[in-house]
Write a structure and sequence with these properties.
With about 90 residues, the protein is mostly helical. It has 4 helices and no strands. It is rod-shaped, with a radius of gyration of 28 Å.
């Protein structure tokens, strides 16, 4: 069984091209793996943040409200204040 040289050359070219794409190109397999891990971590951070917000207000309430609930949430959770006001934090023992 004789193989044509054109078939052998095209097969070798395809193999070399695949190796180049998987390991040596800008978008190699390692970069895709790294980016997928980063996406997973960012999705987890988004979920954590939404859960923290949901403890007090729903995410939709804060997202749709222009200033009221978002400002109240920031004041309560982060102890923020306006420049001309005093805030007293009461600590129960």
């Amino acid at each position: 069984m004789k193989r044509s040289p054109l078939l052998i050359i095209s097969g070798m070219t395809a193999v070399v091209f695949l190796v180049y794409l998987l390991f040596f190109s800008e978008n190699n397999i390692y970069k895709h793996r790294e980016l997928n891990l980063k996406i997973k971590q960012l999705d987890e951070n988004i979920t954590k943040t939404k859960n923290q917000i949901n403890n007090t207000y729903t995410f939709e309430q804060l997202e749709n409200d222009t200033a009221g609930k978002l400002e109240k949430y920031a004041r309560e959770q982060l102890n923020l204040q306006k420049p001309d006001e005093d805030v007293f934090v009461v600590v129960y023992e």
